[in-house]
Design goal:
Distance between the termini: 35 Å
Largest sheet: 5 strands, antiparallel
Mean pLDDT: 94
Helix content: under 10%
Number of helices: 1
Number of strands: 5
Radius of gyration: 15 Å
């Protein structure tokens, strides 16, 4: 059974970079799924239990990963936003993290 998928790309035609600074605008119990899509665009993937803790929720995933530099000085960057929704499509939980150097 498939419990999740995500897609990441830095190519201009299908890049998955998103503005992580907008994550605090997503509020638990208030923001709807359509409002999240309006804010960040369509998600790059989806998760269900056990990739998220709540067995009854579903989540949208925004993911961007980048590696750049030379073989001797590679720099990696990753940001991920997982937004969980309840059955009515209202945000139940938000997890954002970013690591590395752009």
């Amino acid at each position: 059974m498939l419990v999740g998928h995500h897609f990441t790309s830095s190519f201009p035609n299908d890049k998955t970079d998103f503005d992580g600074a907008k994550a605090p605008q997503i509020r638990k119990g208030e923001t709807t799924e359509s409002a999240v899509v309006s804010l960040l665009g369509p998600p790059h993937g989806a998760y269900r239990y056990p990739l998220i803790a709540d067995k009854d929720a579903r989540a949208s995933v925004y993911l961007f990963e980048q590696a750049k530099g030379t073989a001797f000085s590679l720099k990696f960057y990753r940001q991920i936003l997982v937004v969980q929704y309840d059955g009515a499509g209202v945000v139940k939980d938000v997890e954002y993290s970013a690591a590395g150097e752009r």
